[in-house]
Amino acid sequence: MEKIIFLIIIMFILLTFLLLSHKKMFYLLIISIFITEFLWIKIGEGIFRISYFLSIVVLLGFLLLHTQKTLLYLSKSKLILLMFSFLLYNFFLILFGVINKPASLFSFGLLIIMVTFTINFYLFLRIYKEEQRFLKFLAFSSLIAIVFGLLQYAIFTLFGKPLTFTSTQSVNILFNKRITSFFTEGDTFGKNIMVITLLLLPFVYKKQKTKIKTERTFKWSHYIFALYVLTLALNSTRSAIAGFFAGLIVLFYLILINKKGKLLFLKTLMNFIVIISLTVGTLLISGHLSFLTQRLSSILAIKKTLQTDASAVFRYQNTIEPLKKFVKSGPKNILLGSGWTTIKTEFGEFRLEMTSNIFVTFFIYSGLLGLFLFLLIILKTFRTFYVTYKKKSSYLALGGLLSLTGALAASQMAPMTLAPEFWMLFGIASYLETTL
Fold first, then answer.
1. Strand partners for 345
2. What are the tens digits of pLDDT across the range 82-123?
3. Does any domain span residue 87?
4. Could you tell me which residues come within 8 angstroms of residue 165 by beta carbon, excluding any fewer than 6 positions away?
5. How many angstroms separate the CA atoms of 238 and 256, rounded?
6. Whole domain around residue 294: which residue ranges?
């Protein structure tokens, strides 16, 4: 109870600050996503992350500062309305006793918070129209996390001292020599950076087109991009690497079907070869190359991996077993779902209450109807990114397309159901949708 009161007091203090300087508060939210990913406080039987708290505060700020604009813009986005429909459907399942468990309300609350990330990114871009500054700050804040992660890795490699903040990070560095950052464990950090890398990738090749000489447009450096690729390699999260290559495949396909695609394809491919060569050289010097090679080969040799790798076995069982059990549970559950707390898988030290596949998770949580609504959201987002890219040659839309592809590819093995970066993409798509 004391923690809840303390949380309310802090919320009012932050709201006061928010009223004085909303933009700064929004940028603080972006920083919190990368720096405090696993910084949380315990409330009852659950935990509440700091970034979730800040997201709620920022949304309240929008409602207080821009009430009319907020309501108007929310009603204009079909994607946002689809999200509200998805939330409303899940709420009715709980309200009418289809899913009658107290813990389901807590899990449903987490889904609401994820949607607040979508709404916040959408409203910020729509109201302030600061697309360039948003991209710069997104790159800057993720770069801070990367530099700190590389510093952690370098100190451990050179001096044998794990500069970590959580026990999970210590395991990542001590036993696997995998890069992490701040309060974020290895797998989550890898997927976060993968999403940002693909989102900003098109800006590496962006041509500077501005009539005003003093105007600065966002353009990502090849050197910074190489640093992100190196971080993904040192992190060695298999789902993140698979997502990154899925995004690259989409990029090269879009380049090839372009009229001037062949020349641009060769130029882009050469740049990637140089960057990957530098990355491999760095990994060879640091002694990390053999570990990365082992991780990559385990993706290709999936049958062998499912027999020998404990983590892979757990993720496989955590998807197949709950799905088999759910399908046998009856037509009513298949149509409407069996709730947000019915998935419980244990395998050795691993415990999880969601499957390792994002689509299977939503299928079990809210049935065929809920999965259908979620797929509509995904398809609408893909369509928005693609149409905006074709009509406006939007680099942000192209980045969103690559990022969403990567996030969904990664979520077939390790879901990004509760990742703010994943829900941020829907906010960007909602913004682009209303500017068409």
1. 352
2. 999 999 988 887 776 655 555 567 678 888 999 999 999 999
3. no
4. 182, 183
5. 27
6. 130-300
